[in-house]
Write the structure tokens for this entry.
Amino acid sequence: QVQLVESGGGLVQAGGSLRLSCAASGRTTSTYTMAWFRQGPGKEREFVATINWSDSSTAYADSVKTRFTISRDNAKNTVYLQMNTVKPEDTAVYYCAAGRVPGWQMRLSGGYVYWGQGTQVTVSS
């Protein structure tokens, strides 16, 4: 089994930056696709970014494209989400997810088997 633990959330002013981390433990594999999802107040969970462990290919939601960057460190079994030029609408609980997900399903939550507990990000205006 795989366990995921997010960290790095907190309060940040609009226009600022924040870096989230997701540490994976257990029976991890380089074939796992990793992703970040978020759920804002009164909203449904939405896709943010994803990265394939094998080839490092990435995909982003249009709302965060050019502002957020997802990356990984296989040696540390950790994936990161660098959040730049944050906006109040980025306020949400951010969740890390992992699984063997085909390319066509990378943006969809249904393909991910493992989930973290989430970390709160609050952006002040």
Q: What stands out?
A: The mean pLDDT is 93.
